[in-house]
């Protein structure tokens, strides 16, 4: 089996003849501007640019593609016919859940306001229009829109905070979904970006929320219609938003989201941890060993992906 891997020391270690290696697999490594020639059985995609990714997906002979991301929309359009696609939600689920919870706790305690006041050397920070007073998550209704790996982790993390957690899945009837959204103090977007989910949070969705609810987006920027989000933030319909992803992304200079006092922005780093690359290599090793032993590895993406 010949496999193409990112050119990083953690992935080079997979060729070693020790406990890090995977015997019986030939590896070649790619980086931006350098693609190994010839056929390969599989490619592990990660941390590369769109042009390199597209070229890798055109490698002759590919039987499978493993993307070490949770999202797959960047791969699907160029997937060779007949190649199986696998993703790696489990690599990211804990950190993304921790990130969402951290944002919710920070916002509940007004840390964004106090940090802004600190920059101005002001001791106190008045509540923002539409912002609630300092709270905890005790008794809060949290609706997780998308209830896969990350949702289950977040639900577990929220339990000791006394929040009431409800999950929306793609099978949840629309009426039931809207009822849940109307009761939410927090709506957390954990959806993949698909033709069905793009723009799913729009003016009508935001109007249907409880006034002052907060939105957390750790899914994809294009789930939300940004102009509608800005209107809801400015009118006080939304108490605030925690955004790890935006549309456009990255935000260009002068974009109105930069200056929203009730928005906490992070640059698409919800799943980042210092050991992420090592964990990605480890997951790749387990994946290859499963394949070699004739087991179905975790993470196969099937047609009509849901949440
Ligand atoms: C990150 O956004 C991912 O899809 O892994």
What are the salient characteristics of this protein?
five-stranded parallel sheet; alpha/beta; Rossmann fold; 16% strand; 307 residues; six-stranded parallel sheet; 10 helices; binds glyoxylic acid
Short description:
The protein is α/β, with parallel strands linked by helices and 307 residues long.
Topology:
Blueprint: E1 2-6, H1 9-12, E2 26-30, E3 42-45, H2 50-57, E4 64-67, H3 73-76, E5 84-86, H4 89-108, H5 111-119, E6 141-145, H6 149-158, E7 164-168, H7 174-183, E8 186-189, H8 203-207, E9 213-217, H9 226-235, E10 238-243, E11 263-265, H10 276-292
Parallel strand pairs: 1-2, 1-3, 3-4, 4-5, 6-7, 6-8, 8-9, 9-10, 10-11
The site of glyoxylic acid has 5 residues, from loops.
């Amino acid at each position: 089996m010949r496999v193409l891997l990112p050119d990083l020391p953690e992935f080079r270690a997979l060729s070693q003849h020790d406990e890090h290696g995977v015997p019986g697999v030939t590896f070649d490594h790619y980086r931006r501007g350098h693609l190994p020639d010839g056929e390969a059985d599989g490619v592990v995609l990660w941390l590369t640019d769109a042009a390199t990714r597209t070229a890798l997906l055109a490698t002759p002979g590919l039987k499978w593609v493993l993307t070490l991301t949770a999202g797959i929309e960047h791969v699907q359009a160029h997937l060779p016919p007949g190649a199986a696609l696998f993703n790696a939600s489990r690599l990211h689920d804990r950190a993304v859940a921790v990130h969402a919870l951290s944002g919710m706790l920070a916002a509940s305690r007004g840390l964004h306001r106090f940090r802004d006041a600190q920059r101005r050397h002001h001791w106190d920070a008045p509540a923002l229009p539409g912002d609630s007073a300092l709270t905890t998550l005790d008794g809060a209704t949290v609706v997780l829109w998308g209830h896969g790996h990350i949702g289950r982790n977040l639900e577990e993390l929220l339990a000791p905070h006394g929040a009431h957690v409800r999950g929306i899945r793609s099978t949840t009837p629309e009426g039931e979904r809207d009822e849940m959204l109307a009761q939410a103090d927090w709506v957390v977007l954990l959806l993949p970006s698909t033709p069905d989910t793009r723009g799913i949070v729009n003016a009508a969705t935001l109007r249907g929320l409880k006034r002052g609810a907060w939105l957390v987006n750790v899914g994809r920027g294009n789930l939300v219609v940004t102009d509608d989000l800005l209107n809801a933030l400015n009118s006080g319909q939304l108490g605030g938003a925690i955004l790890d992803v935006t549309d456009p992304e990255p935000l260009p200079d002068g974009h109105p989201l930069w200056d929203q006092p009730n928005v906490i922005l992070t640059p698409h780093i919800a799943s980042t941890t210092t050991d992420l690359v090592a964990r990605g290599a480890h997951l790749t090793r387990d994946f290859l060993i499963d394949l070699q032993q004739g087991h179905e590895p975790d993470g196969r993406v099937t047609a009509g992906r849901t949440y």
